[in-house]
Design brief:
There is one protein chain. The longest helix is centred in the middle third of the chain and has 22 residues. Strands 1-9-12-7 form a four-stranded mixed sheet, with helices on one face. A two-stranded antiparallel ribbon has the order 2-3. A two-stranded antiparallel sheet has the order 4-5. By secondary structure, the protein is of the alpha+beta class. The protein is 39% helix and 11% strand. Helix 5 runs antiparallel to helix 7. It has eleven helices and twelve strands.
């Protein structure tokens, strides 16, 4: 059986754990100057206010799991937490909190009912007390939950599938030969360093075959996501996440390993048995930009549907196991059709007409 391939992106990943504030930072009423969330202005102080307020809401009332890092940055976890709160407390979900809107009104109503009322700017503690000392906030850790996976299935999976469809259409257009290079042929050359001819060269056939296999897996996942994607089994500290930088894991040619398992070992001695016939979504995935989340699914599926380790056409990673721009640029042209990240980059640009924004957000 092949080894687990980890998609470890090494750009813009913070090396320290986030600052997680105790809930005694909340002052009522909760007020924001401008909108926070999807499509909002996302002024840092307003985002911080919402993060602190949501952390003060119990999970049974729609509060976030895990608690949000209070960094004032609008990332996928804060967005998801807004949606979770809306889903449980108001009649619609738009992942946005507007000044004086129904979401902030519901947030204030719930906090007033469950917390002592403080004047704005008060420094009195809202946190439980034990003796004379304030209870310390929980250590910052992160677990991939079923709800997060469901959100990925609803939001990201359809876009990744649309990108792959666009990639296949672009490849079809690239096979039409003319007197000058077409935009589709230019895109193929840009990412895979393949020059088209009639008939298409073997590397082009490999690219097209791989995309068709990815498309088949995404079609299956659209009906039954858990058939193809499973969650990472461990709870990680933020320091562990910053050190590993692993977004997802898959075994080369895992698509043929139905019913087989693989053991995932950690350096602390713990281990878990995982399905070999699925892509594992790791905690760091949920700190990636939306672009990178879309591309990660395509990247891992390229490994998953490709040839097994040792085969000349195995879909691999660069020798240093990094998918950074510098690592990709060092690859010789004949390796590019056999590198998973180029499948993600090509599909994304074929669909959106721009390059992928590949960064990890601040934890």
């Amino acid at each position: 059986m092949g080894r687990l391939r980890c998609y470890c992106f090494d750009q813009s990943c913070r090396a320290t754990a986030p600052r997680v504030e105790p809930d005694n930072q909340v002052a009522l009423p909760v007020v924001v100057g401008r909108s926070v969330g999807q499509g909002g202005a996302n002024v840092r102080n307003d985002v911080l206010t919402i993060q602190q307020a949501l952390n003060a809401v119990g999970t049974s009332q729609g509060g976030p799991t895990p608690r949000l890092a209070t960094d004032g940055l609008m990332g996928p976890l804060t967005r998801a937490a807004i949606g979770r709160f809306q889903k449980q407390n108001i009649s619609f979900v738009d992942f946005r909190i507007d000044p004086n809107g129904p979401t902030i009104q519901a947030l204030n109503r719930i906090l007033r009912a469950s917390l002592p009322i403080l004047a704005s700017g008060s420094s009195r503690s809202l946190a439980p007390r034990s003796g004379v000392g304030q209870v310390a906030p929980p250590a910052p850790t992160f677990t991939v939950t079923d709800e997060m996976m469901e959100q990925m299935f609803e939001d990201t999976l359809p876009i990744s599938r649309a990108c792959v469809k666009s990639a296949l259409r672009t490849l079809t257009a690239a096979k039409v030969m003319g007197t000058i290079e077409s935009p589709a042929q230019t895109l193929v050359r840009k990412h895979f360093a393949v020059l088209l001819s009639d008939p298409p060269p073997p590397d082009f056939v490999l690219i097209e075959r791989t995309f068709r296999a990815i498309d088949r897996e995404l079609s299956v996942a659209a009906l039954s996501p858990a058939t193809t994607f499973i969650k990472f089994p461990f709870t990680l500290s933020f320091n562990e996440m910053a050190e590993s930088r692993t977004l997802a894991l898959a075994i080369s040619n895992g698509v043929t390993m139905r019913g087989e398992t693989v053991q995932l070992d950690r350096t602390n001695g713990t281990s878990a048995t995982l399905r070999a016939d699925a892509v594992v979504i790791a905690p760091v995935y949920f700190f990636a930009s939306s672009d990178l989340q879309i591309g990660t699914l395509i990247h891992e599926l390229a490994h998953f549907v490709g040839r097994p380790d040792g085969h000349p056409d195995c879909i691999d990673d660069p020798p240093d196991r990094s998918s950074s721009d510098a690592s990709l640029a060092r690859l010789p042209p004949d390796r590019r059709p056999r590198i998973a990240e180029f499948y993600a980059l090509f599909a994304f640009e074929a669909h959106f007409g721009r390059s992928m924004f590949r960064v990890l957000l601040k934890f």
